[in-house]
Amino acid sequence: MNSAARKKISLVAPFYNEENGVFAFFERIEALRLHVQDRYDLEVVAVNDGSRDKTLEKLIEAKAVWSFIKVIDFSRNFGKEAALSAGLDHASGDAVVPIDSDLQHPPEMVIEMIQKWEEGFEVVLAKRTDRDTDRAVQRVTANYFYRLHNSISDIDIPADVGDFRLMDAKVVEAIKALPESRRFMKGLFAWVGFKTTTLEYKVAAREHGHTSFNTWKLWNFAIEGITSFSSVPLRVWTYLGFAISSLAFLYGIYLILKTLFFGIDTPGYASIMIAILFTSGVQLIGIGVLGEYMGRIFAESKRRPVYIIREIIS
Ligand code: UDP
Ligand code: MG
């Protein structure tokens, strides 16, 4: 076959403390590679996100076995979003697929994704059909998160769709061109648009190691998502302020009339306390929200790189 006509598929896999999963992962990828090798070249950009175990050593060992692996070693842990950004920056494929390295995303699905891509779709999303592998609290909150996020943001993030998806090189170029350094990838993926279709899959349980996302991290991730793509939390204070001022005005008139007609009855401790505590609480929340956005502006204004690479082994 004419090698110039061959297309290349890049998988981008972030690794954080996955030493026991490295080989299992690449064995499944090798199976995928064998399946598509007649028509496609395959590369894996493996990003070692500052693992504190033997992940890097295992990746180098794996690279000696499977030459399609390219290893990017970060100088420290920058987080999954940064690892994905680095992977996209260094992927050279005609299509790119971010995939978790813990085998929760079935690699075989890439075959179906490629078919859809060849049909002309520029983005092929993988939507999980169940959340059995999630903790109960995660299942409920994920649902509310998508609803809240999508109702107040300029973009719609499709529910139950993670980073696992196929993107045409055009789409990857568009994402790489986005300048922000705080990168909520799901949001950025959705923001760029393009012709999209969705496939369904069942999330597998993690085979080795354990998740690095606890409830507190997920909560912060959710706030990151909302503050990245919506200014509604900022604007809501204007309306709340008007509402409370209007009520206070009416109550003021009532107090004045009452004093004029019935005189002053001194005991007012409870109502004063409630008014002070309530309004100061509301104000503090408002300041907190302002701070959240100011923090984002501060972080962006420093123009720091999203990640730092110690070494690229290719
Ligand atoms: N990961 C990463 N950096 C981090 C945390 C996680 O690169 O700081 C990788 C991890 O190795 C895995 C993927 O991101 O391939 C998803 O992480 P995890 O399985 O912990 O999350 P979950 O699947 O529970 O959402
Ligand atoms: Mg996982």
Which keywords apply here?
314 residues, alpha/beta, Spore Coat Polysaccharide Biosynthesis Protein SpsA, Chain A, 2 domains, 17% strand, binds uridine-5'-diphosphate, binds magnesium ion
Describe it for me?
By secondary structure, this protein is an alpha/beta fold. The chain has 2 domains: 7-213 and 305-313, Alpha-Beta Complex (Spore Coat Polysaccharide Biosynthesis Protein SpsA, Chain A); 232-302. It has 10 helices and 8 strands. The protein has an 8-stranded mixed beta sheet, sandwiched between helices. Strand 2, helix 2 and strand 3 form a beta-alpha-beta unit. Helix 5 packs parallel to helix 8 (215-229) and helix 9 packs antiparallel against helix 10 (269-301). The chain is elongated. The two termini are 26 Å apart. Bound molecules: uridine-5'-diphosphate and magnesium ion.
CATH-derived topology of the largest domain: Spore Coat Polysaccharide Biosynthesis Protein SpsA, Chain A
The termini sit apart by 26 Å
The fourth-level CATH homologous superfamily of the largest domain is Spore Coat Polysaccharide Biosynthesis Protein SpsA, Chain A
Task: Tell me how many strands there are.
Answer: 8
Which stretches of 5+ consecutive residues score pLDDT under 50?
none
How large a portion of the residues is in β-strands, by DSSP E? 15-25%
